[in-house]
Amino acid sequence: MKTSLQNIFTILFFLTFTVSFAQNIEGVVTTNENIPLEAVNVVVKGTTNSAVTDNSGKFTIDSKGRLPFTLLIQYVGFTTAEIEVTSIPVNPIQVALKEENELIEVVVSSRRRIEKVQDVPIAISVITGKQAEQTGAFNVNRIKELVPSVQLYSSNPRNTGINIRSLGSPFGLTNDGIDPGVGFYVDGVYYARPAATTLDFIDVEQIEVLRGPQGSLFGKNTTSGAFNITTRKPSFTSGADFEVSYGNYSFLQAKASVTGALGSKVAGRLSFSGTSRDGLVDNVATGRSTNTLNNQGIRGQLLWTPTVNTNVIFAADITTQRPDGYAQVVAGVAPTQRAAYRQFDAIIKDLNYQLPSQNAFDRRIDQDTPWRSNQDMGGVSLNIDTKIGGGTLTSTTAWRFWNWDPSNDRDFTGLQVLAKSQNPTRQTQITQEVRYAGRLTSKISGVAGVFFIDQTSQTDGTEESGSAQWRFAQSSTSSLWKTPGLFEGYGIKTDANIRASSAAVFGQLDWAITDRLHVLPGLRYNFDKKDAHYARTTYGGLQTTDPALLALKKQVYSDQAFDSAIDNTDFSGNITVTFKASDKINAYGTFAKSYKPVGVNVAGLPTNSAGQPLLELAVIKPEKVYHYEVGVKTSPFKNSIFNIAAFRTDIKDFQTNVQAAELGVNRGYLANADEVRVQGVELDASFVISSHLTINGAVTYTDGIYKKFTNAPLPLEETGAPVSFKDVSGTNLPGASRWAGSLGGELSDNARFFGNAGKVFLAVDSYARSEFSSSPSASKYLVVQGYAIFNARLGFRASQGLSVHFWGRNLLNKDYYEQLLPAGGNAGQYAGVLGDQRTYGITLKYSL
């Protein structure tokens, strides 16, 4: 990290070096009410060149020949203004500053045009880059604490699911043969693998979270919503930001970004982020802590402006993660319906083993298989925007890759049950999107585009039994199970490959029937094709020709191979009616028919009584989604926002994930639930109470159930029952809390720190959610109890110069689970993904 910072300082030197000559620029600074402001600080960004306004609000500053450049207009109690100057103005520059605690009218680009978020007929939450930095929300898992409609579940980066309104990804272990229902976009580039949501943000400008289907606005079909993330762009005016944080558990995070002109038409930006932290769980077997953080990411961008109407941005990024982590801690033991000698407690007693602790929140493990969660993700993209007529034509071309190198202890104990469990994967994707957005007539505007993605995923996995496997696998009282070396070193090698291609034509119109009444129809045509290959072969263990011993080995692992190929087309669409009753009230209603493509199983299939794979499960039917929503966005009084939305989503052939009792089904398998319904209400609000106090909050009520699911997997406690499936119709969806909410506020006042004008502040944030099921079929043992956490920050911030604040997370040191999951083989023990305990530290930031 130290070397990276040295490189950034070097680049900053070259980007900020210019040759200058004198030329004066005049201006006037006032309030929004046209009252002159005296003693306003005016700075040429990236320099020490500054001036101060007189009692008439007037200033004169020497440009020193810098063109183009940016003027920063700073005054305590008012939002800093940035004025870009491309030529020496003939007349004085007029600047009207807005009071700092005036509610900022956030603009978004989700509908492929710049507009105020309160005017957009979509339920949408916006987190600015500054908000994310100030609250320590450096990844999606932290963002969910600010946007309670978002859920993220991650037992490791590969096994990560992101949901909005409890829909998007099947709950549980990830299967590469299914598409996520929540789109994840960075600067218009679609990231196909959910693992991207575990990476640190790099130099983010804004995060827009759209709720509900968005298939007529985005290239990849999104049935549940989308993350639309934009990064900070290169600027022709030199600038730089440096930030470093230090906290307990040796937490260290450094961020840096530099930008500036590289020529008359070329600008560059280089950004870096690195995070490290000691582990939060003690491994008594190794004597080291585990669940560390070790992330590094870098992003470079080049902006070329060949004409005033065309921008070309070439971007490249790479992020690496090398944690010793994602270890899960045994959270409890469920009695199953297997015979008494097959219960977990009886098994470990026979093996003379005890868990290191009966309390998961002692944060102690003794797992003997190393936990490794190494991943690399990166790519390149080329984005071209050119103005044509009344709109903009955009082309986004990208290539991306994801490398995954794991090691897991799927039995969660210090016993050699599963000595190896690792499925390294390499995924690559190519995407191309072309769209036009703009005004077509005086009454009609819209967006239309085409999208294509081609991706391949190759997994070469290994799972291997250890010396204790015989006792966990034992299914009879035969003494043959005790045959020395029968299962030790016995495992499977897996070759799993999937190639998925998708093409689409999409568009949405905005027809202004009147200035206040708009109708927005949208349409999408999709073609999807998936080809999958799966093969596993057994190896090792005791070499024998004894049919009885071979039969026992086959009960643990068996050879399996199958191929599948499927394609599908679909028409989907939506219609929205929006009515702006006044400047402060905007109401809308939406109906959408959406679609999630077919799925294929590429992680093994359960077998029938003859030991043959159930090939009818190889291909999973597409989801058919019907979505209804009404909402009102209001500004009831000055500097306030109060929005409410009610929604209902019905899904036929819901794609869900099943955790199988068979070890050979490495990460569970996909299946269809007949019908699912999710309905609820969301409310979000922001209020500026005074120039010193702001309050914001959000709450969501969600009721998600299986309307019909007759062939669901057995819950953990029913493992060993005489039936293989269970009717769970009417029960709750996994991962769906009935209630979730966030509440925060900030108290601030004008201050100066080391000569810098800014704000001293105290901010408090809280996040809470009610209990939820952590199993595809509701299990009384796999229920995550509700919890609430509180975070706070105290410090000083300035738009330029030095800012500093102290922070604390989970201040009350609440013990809570983020997820519960059964061990491989369903012997009864289950483990928890633990929420972080109390952490605290200090952050320093310096902006030029």
From TrEMBL:
<feature type="domain" description="TonB-dependent receptor-like beta-barrel">
    <location>
        <begin position="358"/>
        <end position="811"/>
    </location>
</feature>
<dbReference type="InterPro" id="IPR036942">
    <property type="entry name" value="Beta-barrel_TonB_sf"/>
</dbReference>
<keyword id="KW-0472">Membrane</keyword>
<keyword id="KW-0408">Iron</keyword>
<dbReference type="Pfam" id="PF13715">
    <property type="entry name" value="CarbopepD_reg_2"/>
</dbReference>
<dbReference type="InterPro" id="IPR008969">
    <property type="entry name" value="CarboxyPept-like_regulatory"/>
</dbReference>
<dbReference type="InterPro" id="IPR039426">
    <property type="entry name" value="TonB-dep_rcpt-like"/>
</dbReference>
<dbReference type="InterPro" id="IPR000531">
    <property type="entry name" value="Beta-barrel_TonB"/>
</dbReference>
<dbReference type="Pfam" id="PF07715">
    <property type="entry name" value="Plug"/>
</dbReference>
<feature type="signal peptide">
    <location>
        <begin position="1"/>
        <end position="22"/>
    </location>
</feature>
<keyword id="KW-0813">Transport</keyword>
<keyword id="KW-1134">Transmembrane beta strand</keyword>
<feature type="domain" description="TonB-dependent receptor plug">
    <location>
        <begin position="117"/>
        <end position="226"/>
    </location>
</feature>
<keyword id="KW-0675">Receptor</keyword>
<keyword id="KW-0410">Iron transport</keyword>
<protein>
    <submittedName>
        <fullName>TonB-dependent receptor</fullName>
    </submittedName>
</protein>
<keyword id="KW-0998">Cell outer membrane</keyword>
<dbReference type="InterPro" id="IPR012910">
    <property type="entry name" value="Plug_dom"/>
</dbReference>
<keyword id="KW-0732">Signal</keyword>
<comment type="similarity">
    <text>Belongs to the TonB-dependent receptor family.</text>
</comment>
<keyword id="KW-0406">Ion transport</keyword>
<keyword id="KW-0798">TonB box</keyword>
<dbReference type="Pfam" id="PF00593">
    <property type="entry name" value="TonB_dep_Rec_b-barrel"/>
</dbReference>
<keyword id="KW-0812">Transmembrane</keyword>
